[in-house]
Write a structure and sequence with these properties.
Helices cover 14% and strands 46% of the residues. A six-stranded mixed sheet has the order 1-2-6-7-4-5. A three-stranded mixed sheet has the order 3-8-9. It has a two-stranded antiparallel sheet with strand order 10-11. A hairpin with a 6-residue loop joins strand 10 and strand 11.
Protein backbone atom coordinates (compact mmCIF):
# COMPACT_ATOMS: atom_id res chain seq x y z
CA UNK A 1 0.00 0.00 0.00
CA UNK A 2 1.23 3.51 -0.77
CA UNK A 3 0.27 6.98 0.44
CA UNK A 4 0.62 9.78 -2.09
CA UNK A 5 2.68 12.80 -1.07
CA UNK A 6 4.03 15.86 -2.81
CA UNK A 7 7.24 13.99 -3.71
CA UNK A 8 5.69 10.66 -4.71
CA UNK A 9 4.35 7.51 -3.11
CA UNK A 10 5.43 6.51 0.41
CA UNK A 11 5.15 2.84 1.38
CA UNK A 12 2.75 2.08 4.23
CA UNK A 13 3.41 -1.25 5.92
CA UNK A 14 0.29 -3.17 6.89
CA UNK A 15 -0.06 -5.83 9.56
CA UNK A 16 1.79 -8.65 7.82
CA UNK A 17 5.06 -6.72 7.40
CA UNK A 18 5.36 -4.56 10.53
CA UNK A 19 8.58 -4.50 12.52
CA UNK A 20 6.87 -2.55 15.30
CA UNK A 21 3.66 -3.76 16.94
CA UNK A 22 1.11 -1.83 19.01
CA UNK A 23 -1.37 -3.64 21.21
CA UNK A 24 -5.07 -2.79 20.81
CA UNK A 25 -4.97 -0.99 24.18
CA UNK A 26 -2.02 1.15 23.03
CA UNK A 27 -3.73 1.96 19.72
CA UNK A 28 -6.89 3.05 21.55
CA UNK A 29 -4.94 5.26 23.98
CA UNK A 30 -2.87 6.93 21.24
CA UNK A 31 -6.02 7.62 19.20
CA UNK A 32 -7.69 9.08 22.31
CA UNK A 33 -4.76 11.45 22.90
CA UNK A 34 -4.55 12.23 19.16
CA UNK A 35 -8.13 13.54 19.10
CA UNK A 36 -7.17 16.14 21.72
CA UNK A 37 -4.38 17.60 19.54
CA UNK A 38 -4.94 20.75 17.52
CA UNK A 39 -3.95 20.84 14.72
CA UNK A 40 -4.42 17.13 14.15
CA UNK A 41 -1.00 15.45 13.68
CA UNK A 42 -0.10 13.25 10.72
CA UNK A 43 0.84 10.38 13.01
CA UNK A 44 2.81 9.13 15.98
CA UNK A 45 6.59 9.08 15.73
CA UNK A 46 8.35 6.24 17.55
CA UNK A 47 12.12 6.55 17.73
CA UNK A 48 15.23 5.41 19.55
CA UNK A 49 17.56 8.19 20.68
CA UNK A 50 20.97 8.14 22.28
CA UNK A 51 21.00 8.83 26.00
CA UNK A 52 20.19 7.44 29.38
CA UNK A 53 22.52 5.45 31.58
CA UNK A 54 22.31 2.33 29.36
CA UNK A 55 22.88 4.06 26.02
CA UNK A 56 19.48 4.34 24.29
CA UNK A 57 16.00 5.64 25.13
CA UNK A 58 12.62 5.37 23.44
CA UNK A 59 10.92 8.50 22.18
CA UNK A 60 7.26 8.98 21.22
CA UNK A 61 5.77 12.22 19.90
CA UNK A 62 3.05 13.36 17.56
CA UNK A 63 4.40 14.42 14.20
CA UNK A 64 3.03 16.82 11.59
CA UNK A 65 5.40 15.90 8.77
CA UNK A 66 6.75 12.72 7.21
CA UNK A 67 10.43 12.67 6.29
CA UNK A 68 10.23 11.25 2.74
CA UNK A 69 13.86 10.10 2.75
CA UNK A 70 14.04 8.20 6.04
CA UNK A 71 10.58 7.39 7.45
CA UNK A 72 8.69 4.13 7.22
CA UNK A 73 4.98 4.31 7.96
CA UNK A 74 3.12 1.56 9.79
CA UNK A 75 -0.66 1.65 10.00
CA UNK A 76 -2.64 0.30 12.94
CA UNK A 77 -6.41 0.52 12.62
CA UNK A 78 -6.13 3.91 10.89
CA UNK A 79 -3.31 5.18 13.16
CA UNK A 80 -0.12 6.05 11.29
CA UNK A 81 3.11 5.31 13.15
CA UNK A 82 6.27 6.88 11.72
CA UNK A 83 9.65 5.24 12.31
CA UNK A 84 12.91 6.60 10.90
CA UNK A 85 15.25 4.08 9.31
CA UNK A 86 17.96 4.52 11.95
CA UNK A 87 15.52 3.65 14.76
CA UNK A 88 14.18 0.66 12.77
CA UNK A 89 17.22 -1.46 13.55
CA UNK A 90 16.61 -1.09 17.30
CA UNK A 91 12.83 -1.55 17.09
CA UNK A 92 12.66 -4.86 15.19
CA UNK A 93 10.12 -7.03 17.01
CA UNK A 94 9.17 -4.36 19.57
CA UNK A 95 5.66 -4.44 21.00
CA UNK A 96 4.31 -1.21 22.49
CA UNK A 97 1.60 -1.58 25.10
CA UNK A 98 -0.29 0.83 27.36
CA UNK A 99 -0.54 -0.25 30.98
CA UNK A 100 -2.37 1.10 34.01
CA UNK A 101 -1.24 0.01 37.48
CA UNK A 102 -1.47 1.27 41.03
CA UNK A 103 1.95 2.91 40.53
CA UNK A 104 0.84 4.79 37.41
CA UNK A 105 0.09 4.43 33.74
CA UNK A 106 2.04 4.76 30.53
CA UNK A 107 3.38 3.15 27.40
CA UNK A 108 5.60 0.10 27.83
CA UNK A 109 8.09 -1.09 25.22
CA UNK A 110 8.65 -4.84 25.13
CA UNK A 111 11.86 -5.26 23.12
CA UNK A 112 13.17 -8.81 22.60
CA UNK A 113 16.57 -7.44 21.48
CA UNK A 114 17.44 -5.61 24.72
CA UNK A 115 20.50 -7.00 26.51
CA UNK A 116 20.27 -4.77 29.59
CA UNK A 117 18.32 -1.88 31.05
CA UNK A 118 19.13 0.72 33.66
CA UNK A 119 17.74 0.53 37.19
CA UNK A 120 14.96 3.03 36.51
CA UNK A 121 13.94 1.26 33.28
CA UNK A 122 14.04 4.34 31.08
CA UNK A 123 17.03 3.34 28.93
CA UNK A 124 18.45 0.17 27.39
CA UNK A 125 21.37 -1.34 25.49
CA UNK A 126 21.46 -3.89 22.67
Amino acid sequence: MYVESWSGPIPVFLEESRMVQLTPVAITKVKEILTQQNPSPTGLRVAVVGGGCSGFSYHMAFENQVNQNSDNIYEFDGLKVLVDQMSEMYLDGVQIDYIETVEGSGFKFNNPNVKSTCGCGSSFSV
